[in-house]
User: What shape does this take?
Amino acid sequence: MRTKDRPQLLRRALDDVLAQSLTDWRLIIVNDGGRVAPVDELVSARRTAMAGRVEVIHVEGGSGSMEAAANLGAQQAHGEYVVVHDDDDTWDRDFLSVMTRALDADPEAVGAAARTEIVFEKIVGDKAIEIGRAPFVPPGEMVSMYDLLQTNRVVPIALVVRRRVYDEIGWYDPALKAVGDWEFNLRLVRHGRVIFVGEEPLAYWHQRPHATGASSNSVFGESLDHMQFDRMVRDRLLQEYIDKNGIGGLLYLSKYIEETARHYSLQQTVRRAVHRVTSRLRIGRRRS
Assistant: This one.
């Protein structure tokens, strides 16, 4: 669980984990450069309920990126499965139970992604007030490379990964200050099959589109970083592809796409122009 100076959200996240119907878990909190006292106070208030299942790592000055913080937590995990529960997201109370059962039943799968719902909210005082919801699912209700090539389809709160897989494919890239979960998912799906779980939403991705500062989501508060690091990941992998396969096919494909897009754009422009002219002619006839 990554956190930094969001005690009102961390309080909810801690209670969310404690509410899980499956109790065989261990929580590792990475306080990534935030104030120490609020985190320790919230954990101490739940010490009895935690029953020795919690560890807190305070990173003075911060780890440098969200991905570096995720690595600090995941590397301390010794169970069979790992999931990143950020301090602003939540689960259905049966999330851990359903997801681990699904992976137990499919030992060849490297991970499992839960049906996810976006929860829109705003911060009022020390509370988060819900203002709406929307579904967030991979197209076709499956996790595929085809879809991940376009954009990230699985957010951390919804993804349970076998712990051994980190040793096999590597950790989150600490150099990425954004889109690190997407880059990890690209490697994960190349490595093996990720199953899609849940007829109903089991994971809730909370978003605060208008929040600023510590309460904001990185997808909104750091949108420029998302765009730049998205381009960086694509460029790095494109270079690897060119080193192995040459540049000829990509040159052809990029020009073909550009010319095709221009052709259809011209067709649409002509259709709109013809529609406007014929509409005016009809109006003129009616008036006459």
